[in-house]
Amino acid sequence: MLEKPPVIKSYRWHLGSIAWILHRITGLLLVFYLLLHIWVIHHITSGPEGFNKVMSVVQKPIFLLLEIGLLGTVLYHAFNGVRIMIVEFADNAAGAHKAIFGAVMAIAIFLFLVGGVPMFMHFLHAVSH
Known about the structure:
The protein has helices at 15-44, 48-58, 61-89, 97-128. It is mainly alpha-helical and 129 residues long. It has one domain: 3 helical TM bundles of succinate and fumarate reductases (Up-down Bundle).
């Protein structure tokens, strides 16, 4: 008679699984952004009325915050993709995937701060006026 396979009672999260999930989520967010961007471009090219209507919406403060989120999404997805390529194609890099993740995320965070702080300052200026 066949025995039942053992039941997994708990799953321990680790860096690789979290990076994998975040990579998929950021990829889906970027696809959503691309569709939204195509929609905006479509309406902008429909004439002055369409342009003014779309610009009045996308220049609101919430969209300034979403642009900061977009920067973070692009940076995470891009630099995690670089990490994945290094781990997949470099000899013996799989054992160092945590260190590689730390290095590429440090670069991504630095770039996020370089780009995100001025964007946030612009957001604060837009909200105060």
